[in-house]
Amino acid sequence: MINSLNLSDTATGYRYKSNTELKFTYWMYRILQSKRMANALIFCTRIILKYNLPFQYLIKKTVFNVFCAGENIDDAFKKIMFLNEFKVKSVLDYVSEGENDDRSFDKNAKIIVSNIVRLGKESPGNYVSVKLSGLENPGFLTYCNGLEFLNDLIISPRFDRLMARVDLICKSARDSNVIVFIDAEDRCMQDLFDRITETMMEKYNSNHAVVFNTLQMYLKDRLPYVRRLIDLAEKQQYVPGIKLVRGAYVEKERELARKEGRESPVFDTKKETDDAFNEAVELCLRSHNFVDTCIATHNRESTLHAVACIKKYRIENHFNKVRFSQLYGMSDCLTFNLCLNGYNSSKYLPYGEVKKAIPYLIRRSEENSSIDGQIVNEANFLKDELERRAGKQEL
Ligand SMILES: Cc1cc2nc3c(=O)[nH]c(=O)nc-3n(C[C@H](O)[C@H](O)[C@H](O)COP(=O)(O)OP(=O)(O)OC[C@H]3O[C@@H](n4cnc5c(N)ncnc54)[C@H](O)[C@@H]3O)c2cc1C
Question: Using DSSP, how many helices (H) and how many strands (E) does the chain show?
């Protein structure tokens, strides 16, 4: 299969886009890939957010349109059904960044549960993702991160409420046969996220992984953690769900470490991150008999490396053991070509109010203007496809 897999086939990659959508996406990428334009866009977006200026319509019609599935669940379901027609699965992500009170956290948990139930009934085979910072305040999560999980936290009513929300989501996922990915966020909360996710995995991942933890491989401590998690799961006899990403907060982590006068938790070079990511892929796929893996990346080399590992370790039932995923609006050539060749791949599909999606959109804009990322090729692919459709050489 690896021989026929062409991750640059733009006809397959963009077959779900009309000519107008393709042109629009191409011009958005042209803007984002200019560092100056992207910085100007990010600056304006921050100002709009800070002063609550009435320009959200502009954001909705531009970056939001490219990277998000819509403002409400019905919009998102339409996208899910549409992508499913091309064998592409979806990871439904209710965007709720920046909320601060118990009522909002309970409401967010309820919305996620109702999405899970609806997915289970109307659209089986798709997934949800959850940001724990949408279920509790990041300040409290950071505080808990420094405490002993079993000894100190177990007696905190506020922590109990958080665990009840997470448990409700994971239990609904198990009952509705929907997989749930717990996203990784700032390093200062990750030890807590690891313990919470391990607890849920032990409870719900008996035959296959219902709950996945996300590991940011730009972190220096994650390779040893992959090994530890696999050992722990083997001992406690559950199937660990491991979603591998490189990590979306490089500058934020470095800046915080600088301010606090400690070593950065993030590798100093992209190559070290790439090596750690690829080694983690190898470790997980080598243990495919008792590990379920999600390779969440736009990086072609890592994707081909994973495909090669599937062959090397003869993972015959790879569709249910190894999942690939890319963000909506990015790397369509990877997603659609993987699916066409029998691999399990999905789009990470955020939806919600434009205002709440802004931090997510800023991360995407920063990523797309970074010269370190492979996604800078996106505009070239879009241009190739426009030219192919027009049957000419020049746009
Ligand atoms: C489906 C999906 C789900 C995701 N979920 C999460 C999540 O839960 N949490 C999260 O944090 N991110 C998440 N991400 C984003 C992810 O972490 C990356 O930011 C993004 O995918 C870009 O990395 P890449 O592997 O696609 O490829 P590339 O474009 O090859 O790599 C870019 C990445 O390399 C790393 N990098 C770049 N320069 C350096 C450097 N100088 N030193 C060290 N490292 C460097 C950074 O992590 C950067 O984002 C998700 C991505 C996808 C596709």
Answer: 18, 8
The CATH-assigned architecture of domain 10-390 is Alpha-Beta Barrel (3.20)
CA gap 352, 73 in Å, rounded: 8
User: What is the pTM (predicted TM-score) of this model?
Assistant: 0.94
How far is the C-alpha of 264 from the C-alpha of 250, rounded, in Å? 9
d(CA 364, CA 370): 10
Cβ 335 under 6 angstroms from ligand 1: no
Q: pLDDT for 180-212, tens place per residue?
A: 999 999 999 999 999 999 999 999 999 999 999
Ligand 1 pocket member 213 (CB < 6 A)? no
Residue nearest to atom 25 of ligand 1 (CA): 297
Kindly give the number of the ligand 1 atom that is closest to the alpha carbon of 367: 49
**Could you tell me if 369 and 31 are in contact, meaning their C-beta atoms sit under 8 angstroms apart?**
no
Does the pLDDT of residue 376 top 90, yes or no?
Answer: no
Q: Is 214 in the pocket of ligand 1 (CB under 6 A)?
A: yes
Cβ(267) – ligand 1 distance below 6 Å: yes
In whole angstroms, give the CA distance from residue 393 to residue 65.
28
How far apart are the C-alpha atoms of 341 and 263, rounded to whole Å? 43
214 Cβ contact partners less than 8 Å away, ≥ 6 residues apart: 181, 182, 183, 184, 243, 244, 245, 296
Q: Where are the domains of the chain?
A: 10-390
The neighbour count for residue 279, using CB atoms within 10 Å, is 14
Q: DSSP label at 133? A: G
